[in-house]
Specification:
By secondary structure, this protein is an alpha+beta fold. Among the domains are: 89 residues, Alpha-Beta Plaits (2-Layer Sandwich), CATH 3.30.70.120; 81 residues, Alpha-Beta Plaits (2-Layer Sandwich), CATH 3.30.70.2750; 220 residues, no CATH class. It is built from 23 helices and 13 strands. Strands 2, 3, 9, 10 and 11 form a 5-stranded antiparallel β-sheet that branches.
């Protein structure tokens, strides 16, 4: 349960084996290769082009995937929206799907589909635009072509605002022209102008004077009605063509997109391998690479590489004092899921220890106190357990599901002691009344009826965690030989802060009053100790004393940190109150004849599901915040870099386990 020891690993060998060695290291997934900057290095001549070519292939595959994903349904349904799943294939299935992709000329087929759908879409858009243009003029029974072919007359198809039309009409009455209104809307008038060609200048002058839109009808020849009929027929043909392409995609698309998923992951891993090849130092006949490996993988690396490759030199060494190796964490199965929470904040550095075992119990308890409902805990535990077993994602991403599983189990306990069973459902609904005696048996306090008890519990847990954080920092300083800092900056503060509530408690509680005087003296001694030591870095005695007195103001900071834990009360109460309101709504609507029961069931399921989702999200966020802001700031330095070995990554696919 700690940060794993890391070793510097150096590998040297013949260039002819380099690509195969890198591939083997990628399959092992246990070495993080570092770039070596060496001016006289001569990497393989083919490498830059190979990187560029692989990048182009990745881009082509990604474009094809993005196109097909719009038309090929995903396997995960609604779950896939929140947790994108991967496809599992055996090696044989992978080979068959790639072969099928190539046999169907996958790229060409997809590009043909894409071009066909895009062309169809553009044609449909243009035709709809033409139809909208012609619709106001469909009452005209004359051929547009014949109107345009008149020798002495120009015909204009126009649209104007209604409030301007009378003025337009008046001006045209003085010209060698005529206006015929074709159709009207509340805002616009659609009309045609027939004017002698000799009056073209005057006509255009009037058209420019008002807000008149003139339509170009050159591409039409028949009457507007006939043109609209032709457009509708063409739209029908294009829709049939589009449906045929979509049916073709539906038939072949699923096989092709699976092939693309496999190809994308393969190209991605090839690209990673070529990138790491570029990190090595090369001479004419040899290569040299360096990186990091976990100490526990040392023998495995040597065993695999030395068995397969001759004349290969592998040297392991501990990191030098000035080196900062990457950080790899290892914990027991109960703590491992909470590495997700630590990772959100950042990795510890190599000089401290893994905080994950320290935050795990606090995080789980705080999460559960934010929900405080046995029913919600059961649903969360069952759902996360089901998803953990069925959803196809990487093991690292499944850690979050295990956090929710543990949080759900603890929520069952906190729900039992606070009486939350889908709010107050056993109390409200007759069909759940048989659970009321069980609920009453386990309940210790009701947060809604006894919020002060809940507040005291929240603040007490916060105080304990803050003292624990100071204790951790004290241990770290002792380990580093910083004894003064451990005693003066952590131990004194811990004793002083613990003494304050003890002094207050012994003053107010009658049986403990005899101890009040002694504890008050103790707090005073600790205060003097802080004043005497907190300004020790100052040079003059006056500054030492003033700095020491000023340090006592930090009590306000610690008090603020403790009060911050009252958010557990706020979130726990909100969960209970919303659940109670949902139950009251169900009770109210259930009294409606005939449909009341159905409405009530829908409100019960929808309301409680909404309450669970919203408050589970809030519980995770605020429990994390308490760790990061209140707890970690007491001891955690961070700044470490996560260990990221070269390995085969899987964006879309995972290896299917073959049961023998």
């Amino acid at each position: 349960m700690a940060i794993l020891p890391m070793l510097r690993v150096n590998i040297a060998g013949h260039r002819s084996n380099e690509e195969e060695i890198i591939k083997e290291l990628q399959n092992l997934g246990v070495i993080e290769i570092e770039r070596i900057d060496y001016e006289d290095s001569s990497p393989p001549e083919w490498l830059p082009e190979k990187l560029a070519q692989t990048n182009r292939e990745l881009s082509r595959v990604k474009t094809s995937i993005n196109f097909l994903k719009e038309y090929v349904s995903s396997k995960g349904g609604i779950v896939d929206i929140f947790v994108p799943q991967k496809f599992s294939f055996t090696e044989e299935e992978r080979a068959n799907l790639i072969e099928e992709f190539q046999k169907n000329s996958g790229y060409e087929t997809i590009e043909l589909w894409e071009k066909s759908l895009e062309d169809t879409k553009n044609q449909i858009a243009n035709l709809i635009q033409d139809k909208e243009l012609l619709s106001p003029f469909q009452n005209i029974n004359l051929s547009i072509k014949k109107m345009k072919e008149l020798k002495e007359i120009d015909v204009y198809f126009c649209q104007a605002k209604r409030y301007e039309f009378d003025s337009i009409l008046k001006e045209f009455s003085e010209l060698l022209g005529d206006i015929a209104v074709v159709s009207q809307t509340p805002l616009y008038v659609f009309f045609i102008i027939a004017a002698h060609k000799s009056a073209v200048g005057e006509v255009k002058g009037v058209l420019s004077k008002y807000t008149i839109t003139t339509y170009n009808m050159e591409r039409f020849s028949e009457t507007p009605n006939r043109e609209i009929e032709r457009i509708e027929l063409r739209l029908k043909e294009l829709e049939e063509k589009r449906n045929k392409v979509l049916e073709d995609i539906k038939t072949k698309g699923e096989v092709l997109i699976k092939g693309l998923y496999i190809m994308y992951d393969d190209y991605q891993n090839n690209y990673l391998r070529y990138e790491n090849l570029n990190k090595s130092v090369h001479t004419k006949s040899t290569f040299f690479l360096t990186g990091w490996a976990r100490g526990k993988d040392k023998e495995r690396i040597k065993d695999v590489l030395e068995k397969r490759f001759r004349n290969l030199y592998i040297v392991f060494s501990p990191p030098s004092p000035e080196e900062e190796p990457p950080i790899a964490l290892e914990n027991n199965p109960l703590v491992t899921p909470f590495e997700t929470v630590t990772g959100i904040y950042g990795m510890p550095n190599s000089k401290e220890f893994d905080p994950t075992p320290l935050i795990a119990p606090f995080f789980a308890i705080f999460f559960a106190l934010c929900l405080t409902d046995l029913g919600y805990g059961i649903i969360l535990a069952l759902l996360s357990s089901y998803l953990y077993k069925t959803v196809l994602i990487e093991k690292t991403r499944k850690k979050l599901l295990r956090v929710l599983l543990i949080g759900g189990i603890i929520t069952i306990i906190t729900g039992a002691i606070t009486g939350g069973w889908f709010g107050n459902a056993p109390e409200v609904f007759p069909f759940m009344r048989f659970l009321e005696p069980i609920r009453e048996k386990f309940i210790l306090f009701d947060p809604i009826k006894e919020p002060v008890t809940f507040l005291v519990l929240s603040l007490a847990l916060g105080f304990i965690q803050i003292m624990f954080g100071l204790g951790v920092k004290m241990v770290l300083n002792f380990r580093r030989g910083l004894y003064k800092e451990a005693i003066f900056d952590q131990l004194f503060w811990m004793l002083f802060l613990i003494g304050i509530p003890l002094a207050a408690g012994t003053t107010m509680i009658e049986p403990l009053k005899p101890f009040s005087k002694h504890i008050t003296y103790f707090v005073g001694i600790m205060a003097i100790g802080l004043v005497s030591t907190q300004g020790r870095h100052q040079k003059s005695i006056v500054l030492k004393i003033t700095s020491g007195l000023g340090s006592l103001y930090s009590v306000i900071g610690y008090l603020s940190d403790v009060i911050s834990y009252s958010r557990l009360l706020a979130l726990g109460l909100s969960t209970g109150v919303i659940a109670t309101v949902v139950n009251e709504l169900v009770k109210t609507f259930s009294n409606i004849p005939i449909f009341g029961v159905i409405i009530g069931i829908l409100i019960f399921i929808g309301g409680h599901l909404f309450n669970l989702v919203i408050n589970a999200f809030g519980a995770f966020v605020h429990s994390s915040r308490l760790q990061f802001v209140e707890f970690f700031t007491k001891f955690f330095e961070g700044g470490g870099r996560e260990f990221k070995p070269l390995r085969n990554i899987s964006i879309y696919t995972i290896e299917k386990e073959v049961k023998g």
